[in-house]
Amino acid sequence: MPKIWSETIESHRAAVRDATIDAAAALVAEHGLLSVTMSRIAEETGIGRATLYKYFPDVEAILLAWHEREIARHLEQLREIRHRTGDPGERLEAVLEAYALILHQSGGHDDTELAAVLHCDEQVGHARDQLRTMFRELLSEATETGVVRDDVAPDELASYCMHALNAAGTLRSKAAVGRLVRVVMAGLHPDR
Fold first, then answer.
1. What is the pTM of this model?
2. Within this chain, do residues 39 and 91 fall inside the same structural domain, yes or no?
3. Are residues 149 and 106 in the same domain?
């Protein structure tokens, strides 16, 4: 098969997959989890149900693919912020703030049914490990420059940050998220 055909087929498959995931996410956001069916997704995308089943066995698989894509996008966003910001303290604060804003914008997954479906996925555990590693590395760098306290191990501080910033999902404003990040950063500073 000529290379152009395989690239075209792969791009078509990616487009079908993305359209399916986008439609499912939009339906959940607009009508709630229980309203999403393969038939409704097919109707929204203009893709036949039989074709959808070639890509995904059920709605849950589509939602897990959406969640995986969102997690990957968020992790990439945090990596970009980590690599473009100045000194270790600035990088740490920028990543913590971006993470808190991601949680704030997602609303902490208020939909408990959706959260139950999405958070049982092993991808979430893997993403959490990547996030903890990123935080630990940032905290280690900041500790070496004296910006972060050295009386608590960076791994413990990374867990502390992750748990403390989870509160951002329940806050009502970006200003409140900013205050939360400042409180977390204050807790990380060495005793003077």
1. 0.81
2. no
3. yes
